[in-house]
Every structure is written in structure tokens, then in C-alpha cells.
# Entry
Amino acid sequence: MDLSKDEIARYSRQVILPQVGRAGQLRLKAAKVLCVGAGGLGSPAAMYLAAAGVGRIGIADADRVDLSNLQRQLLHGTPELGQLKTESACARLRAINPHVEVVLHPVRLTAANAAEIIEPYDIVLDGTDNLPTRFLVNDACVLLGKPNIYGAVFQFEGQASVFAPKLGGPCYRCLFPEPPQPGAAPNCAEAGVLGVVAGLVGCIQANEVLKLVLRTGRSLMGRLLLIDALEGQFRELRVRRDPACPVCGERPSIKTVQDLPSACAATSSVFPDGDELEVSVQQLAQALRDPNSAVVVLDVREPAEAEIAHIRGARLMPLSRIAAWAGSLAPEKTYFLHCKSGRRSLEAAEFLRQRGFRHVKSVRGGILAWAEEIDHSMPKY
# Structure
């Protein structure tokens, strides 16, 4: 394997770097990197890896391009709306660099396919946006001996690290041994993120991949980089390998990849006494039309969300301040709670039920279902 005349010209600005050179560029050409997720993190990471000349880039993602993706997922554009993200990503990466082989995996990673998909690659870049897949990727990488380039974003904050027990470092479970209970983690679509933060973290992940392939620089292995984009601050925490880690420790209890329940999922919508905790948007609409209805509608979203779209007659009472506003409610009244998709309103309804409110219901599907089924003029976000 050698570099063509076109490749030498294309990569000339990095080939002249002493840390790269011709030998380093050939290592990049021979490298095989899997990007799990073609979203906010995977977009900048994959584009820079392709531009740098990584020979084979795998893209694993089962989703289709949605309008809400375009604020941060720069692999995709308006013309690709509705297209599989893997197909959109492939076209963009090949446009950046036709010398790169792009391998598509248009599926969601599960315990059944993770090992088969990950095994052919040298390095895995974790661009996932949910905790179950993040734990699954970590466990598969540890069991297969693959470095896991970690990244995560939340609103204006980001994290990045390199988890590679085979190279002597910790894994993700050394930092977070067990996933949170279902419903404890914020819904990824509802928490929000500034697009440029995903760009920052994705670029850092790509940089870590390139350093590993080139065998140069100081890796983030053993360090968790914390980014605060609002304050313009970067901090780092030391992460040590945990001898008691359930997957990479001295006596591991996890020896196969396992699927985990969604950490972003809501908890049960039925109480132990069999009382259904949810109502449909049709039932909400009927209650709002009925002049004799005593139902009070509570919107548990944040004020910025209510500015985008709101249901007439609903009182804004954000879930983040539920302990403060709950005391102003009358336990004997009937309340319909709604949020964006139904997760937060279920959480709020359960909170109130546990405090003696017996006539509380969560609106299934939230304002997204309202826009889909009741008010078609309402914007979605």
C-alpha cells in the first residue's frame, strides 16, 4: 500500500508534520474506525476523519434525517430530510474524500449485532445520544479489546475521554458502574443542546482517534475532559481503572454484551391499584371544549419550550421546579399534565400521586401528539 499522487497533494499539509509524515499517513490509510451514531458528535468526527484520510469509516445509525437534526448534525442537509442517516453520511463523506471507504450499518446496535459490527474495526468512536447504547458500546469494546473514544453533550456542556482497558486505561463503567434507573436520565430530545458544543466534542473525539492511529501525543485515556461552553472553560478529571469494575475489573461479572432498558424511557403508566395514569390528547381536547369541565391543565415544560408552542388554557409549571409549585395545588382537583412527549408529565404525575393527589393524569405523547392529532398548525420542535 502506498500513497497516490492525488493523496499526497490532498494530505500535504499534515504529511509535512513531523508527527505524521508518509508513514503516519499510511497508518491513517490502513486504519478502520467505526462511528456509532451519525448525529451531533458523529457528524464532525466522521467528516474530519474522512478529510484526514482514515481508510475505512463505518457508520452505524438506524435513524432518518429529521428537520430538528440539522441544527447540529452537519453530515446532513435539507435535501436529505427523510433519508437514512447512513446514506446521507456516505454521500457527504465521499464528497469530502473519494479515497475513503465508507461502510454502512443502517441498524441500531444491540446485544445481538454489536460484536459482529464492531469486531472488524480498530477503533470505535461513540457518538450515541442515549445511555443504554453507550453502556452497550463500552461493554462490547472491552470484551473485543477495542479502544472506545467517548463523547457526550448536554445543553452547553460536553465530555470526552478514551476508554481502553487493553491499553491499560479505564472503561466507561469504571466511571459509571451501572446505568441509572429508567426515567432518571433526561430525555435526549427534551434536554436540548447548543449545536456548536456537539461540534467541539466531536472534533475532540476525532483528534483522539488520529493520535491513537498516529501513535503520537498524549491520549485522553485516564482523563475525562469537561467542557463548559457558556463559561469558555475546559477542566479535566482523573479517571482510574476500577479493580472492581463489572466488565474490565479483576473479577468481571459482565462477560457478554447485554441490552439494557432505555434510561430515557418513562416509568410505568399504571399504578399498583390498576389506575391508568395517562389520558390521550383527544381526551384533553374534549376536556378543554367542555364548559363544565373542572380539569386544570398543567404544562410541565420549560418556559423556552412554551414560547415555541403551547396549548391554550394550560398553566406553565416546569418539572424542574415541581417541589415549589406543588404546594399551590389543591389535591382534590383534577389535573391533566403535559410536556413535549409524555415522559416529564408522567414523572410529574407520579410525584403528585405520591403526595396525595389522586386525580392526576399525564397526557400521552405530549404536545407533539397534540400537534400531530389535534392542532396541525402548531409547530413541532
